[in-house]
Amino acid sequence: MTSKDNFEFAHAHRKEVAWMSQNTNTLPVHPAILDAIRASADEQEFNLYPRKAGVVGLSEAIKEDLRLDDVEMILTNGGIEGEYIATRALLKAGDEVLSTDPAFLPIHDQVAMAGAHAIEADIYRAPYVLTPEHALESVTPRTKLLLVIDPNNPLGSGYSRAQIAGLAEIARDRGLWLIDDITYRDFNADHVLATEFYPEKTLLSYSFSKAPGLAGMRIGAILGPPAAIQSLRKYDTNVLGVNVLAQRAALAALRTKKAWLPGVRRTCERNQETIRRTVAKVDGASLPVYPSKANMFVIDLAPTGVNPEAVEERLLLDHLVHTRAGSYLSKKHGGKFLRVSFTVSDADCARFAQAFPAVMDKLAA
Ligand SMILES: Cc1ncc(COP(=O)(O)O)c(C=O)c1O
Fold first, then answer.
1. What is the Cα–Cα distance from 290 to 127, expressed in whole angstroms?
2. Within this chain, do residues 266 and 327 fall inside the same structural domain, yes or no?
3. 78, CA 20 to 30 Å: which among 72, 249, 331, 363?
4. What global pTM score does this model have?
């Protein structure tokens, strides 16, 4: 079966499947978030197009969350739409974007849509991030933009303050745009924003999909200095605004963040420890990055000789555990690893722990 078929199967069995394939969050959301969605529906707020700038208080709450004042934003259908708008607005044919392999490759597809080209610096080796030294080796006169995914999807690696400062300096010296994709920021208590070092040309790609558990709501934002956001607006095709229920959910999530985020982080710690113990039982399997600074990491299977796509398929069809083979996330190393996300219930994680050694045993035979 292809990965697309696996998703069809997983959606058809949505209630029974342990959804560990998309770095989403299937833990119960805070009741205030559900209340906000229900109140908006009860009031039929959806009869009208929403206010383009967002429901009152939302953009302020996002800025407060980031502790930033002097930024503007476009609310978008998930962070991915903001990245599309930014790449479209900032890039032209022949430009290069310095990014990594592995990475969340759909952004590289967007770069290609603008006629530009993503240079994928290989970070599938320690320290599993794009160091400033490594970035310098890969920057060329055609480089227009530096894409930093921090924490990285799929590796779960996070950038240190010194690394972010170093990358920002490289961008400033060459006048590059810097997109700081902070989709997984909430999982890393030590996260540092590139804006701190390079406010002039840093854009932040912000998401409500992961830690607050709102992936299906499709809401996010692209933020940056006012002039830059103004120049992005002409590529914003969504002039009628973002789903109002999603906006209400997002606002409630930010207002209650102190109440739910610590619990989500504790679940991540517990589940990744369970997965670590499980992986240790399988000869040749290992975790390149542990602990993860996100809600996912990769399990390297290369020494086992087992194909990650076969593991994805058997885990799903035989055990109703949905994970993702590396080919979706890395051209060079995709055949070596399986990505597993762990913002799931203890019971779902326990199912993975029971199933993974059995599947590996069967496929290695
Ligand atoms: C690094 C990265 N950026 C952006 C996105 C898109 O997130 P959203 O759901 O906010 O569009 C994802 C989704 O997995 C991601 O991993």
1. 11
2. yes
3. 331
4. 0.97
